[in-house]
Structure formats: C-alpha cells, structure tokens
Design brief:
alpha+beta; 2 domains; five-stranded antiparallel beta sheet; two-stranded antiparallel sheet; 4 helices; 23% helix
Length: 156
C-alpha cells in the first residue's frame, strides 16, 4: 500500500481481508473527499457519514460505505474548466445490502465490475496526446482540454 492508496482502509470498513478484497474488486482505491457532496441531489446515499472511495485513472467506479450497506456508483465529473475545480460525484447508484449482495443477488464484485464496464464505455483518447480521457471532458469529441489550449488556442 502506498501513501495515496486507501485500499486497506476500504477493506477495514468492509470488514474484509485486504488481499481477498484486492483479488475480488481490485486495488488502488482512494478516498474521495471534497465539496462534491454540495452538488449531489439529496438521497439517503449522500448520508454525511458515508465514506466514498474511487478507483481508476480516469476514475472508473466509486464505492460508498455506510453503516448498513455499500453503494456502488458510476462517477460523474462536474466542472473541469481551468477556472473551476473538477469534482467527482456519484451517479447511477446501486445499493448493495448487507455489504456483500443486492436484493437481486448481485454481489459487490459484480456491481463494481458492471459500473467499471459502463464507465469505460465513455472513455476516449485525445488525438493529440493520446491520453485516455473521460469523453465528457473532451473538446470536439477528440481533444482533451490541455491539448485544446496548447494546440488549438482555445481559451477557457
């Protein structure tokens, strides 16, 4: 575990062995903290004591651990212009009851992998720097914001 990797903290909240957790849902989970809670519509998933974690670069999935359940969410970026901060906020939430399985029998691992699959479908590569980027953050569907400023003279 590195200083910026919170996988063991997530494992502790889920009452799981870190090695087993990483084998099932992957590693390199990071705590999500910040002002995005102010942007989120009011639901029980935004309860103040729920702790959110994200994984992937760009972020592919979020997991929110509450007292009685876990929520799996597809992240949505808010902001992203050079003059404004970028926030992650959960969207399309699936509550996993009793921390391991939904009422429909979907496991936490299955819910996370499905969220990742859906999120990855929105990723695109910038035609200049070839870096994989959230499709919503591209200019003209193929240029990342940094390259738009550098190569196309776009001013935000």
């Amino acid at each position: 575990m590195t200083a910026s990797d919170d996988t063991e903290i997530l494992a502790g909240l889920l009452r799981a062995d870190p090695a087993a957790l990483m084998a099932n849902i992957g590693a390199y989970w990071h705590r999500v903290e910040g002002d995005w809670r102010d942007l989120f519509w009011p639901t029980e998933e935004t309860e103040p004591d729920r702790r959110w974690f994200s994984a992937g670069e760009p972020v592919q999935v979020m997991v929110g651990v509450g007292d009685a359940d876990v929520c799996v969410a597809i992240p949505m970026l808010v902001g992203g212009l050079p003059s404004s901060p970028t926030y992650l906020k959960p969207a399309k939430i699936l509550a996993v009851q009793d921390r391991y399985q939904t009422q429909d029998g979907v496991t936490l691992s299955e819910a996370i992998h499905e969220a990742e699959r859906r999120r990855r479908a929105s990723f695109r590569y910038c035609r200049y720097c070839r870096v994989q980027t959230d499709g919503a953050q591209l200019i003209m569907d193929s240029v990342c914001r940094g390259c738009a400023v550098r190569f196309l003279g776009v001013v935000f």
